[in-house]
Amino acid sequence: MSTETPNMPTSDSKFVIADVLSFLITRSGESLRTISEQTGINYKTLHSIKQRASSGVNLKTLKTLADFFNEDITIFLGLDNYEKPLHLSDREKALVETYRKLNDEAQGRVDQMARDYVDMKKYRREGH
Questions:
Q1: Do residues 73 and 62 make contact, with C-beta atoms less than 8 angstroms apart?
Q2: Which of 13, 56, 57, 69 has the fewest CB atoms inside 10 Å of its own CB, making it the most exposed?
Q3: What is the largest CA-CA distance in the chain?
Q4: Residues 55, 23 share a domain
Q5: Domain check: are 73 and 94 in the same one?
Q6: Domain around 114
Q7: Contacts by residues 84-90 (CB-CB < 8 Å, ≥ 24 positions apart)
Q8: What gap in Å lies between CA 118 and CA 125, rounded to an integer?
Q9: How many whole angstroms separate alpha carbon 120 and alpha carbon 128?
Q10: What gap in Å lies between CA 14 and CA 22, rounded to an integer?
């Protein structure tokens, strides 16, 4: 699998579902066969979507593909500058709400404290 991440196509490149699927496949390094086996989507259906031979794709198929690639289904809308939605736990949401109540000076102090803790290996989570 290549370590280089492909560029996300943009709407000015006639961005369509096929382009998104090709992007996701390239980025993941998975084959159509593997995707078919792991999602239960027929290989011919995947191939047809990728080759733009499909006249339409149902939402269930798109949702299944989005889940497989750990993405939100909105990636298939072809939005410029797509960013994967951030899903926060209830604890993280509460922290953000508390943070927003702080003034700029206090937020700066919290930011610095967080960076200091991240720099200390014993406080970091595995893989981060």
A1: yes
A2: 56
A3: 58
A4: yes
A5: no
A6: 90-123
A7: none
A8: 9
A9: 12
A10: 13
Tally the residues of the chain: 128
- As for how many domains the chain has, the answer is 2
Match 């000015």 to its residue by tokens. Answer: 12
Distance separating alpha carbons of residues 31 and 44, to the nearest angstrom: 13
**Are both 62 and 32 inside the same structural domain?**
yes
Q: Which amino acid is at 113?
A: M
d(CA 121, CA 83): 29
Both tokens assigned to 40: 């239960």
Q: How far apart are CA 101 and CA 78, in angstroms?
A: 35
Q: 6 lies in a domain?
A: no
The CATH number of the domain holding residue 29 is 1.10.260.40
Separation CA 85–CA 77 (nearest Å): 14
pTM for the structure as a whole: 0.56
pLDDT in tens, 49-106: 888 776 678 899 999 999 999 998 888 887 666 666 677 899 999 999 999 999 999 9
Q: How far apart are CA 99 and CA 17, in angstroms?
A: 38
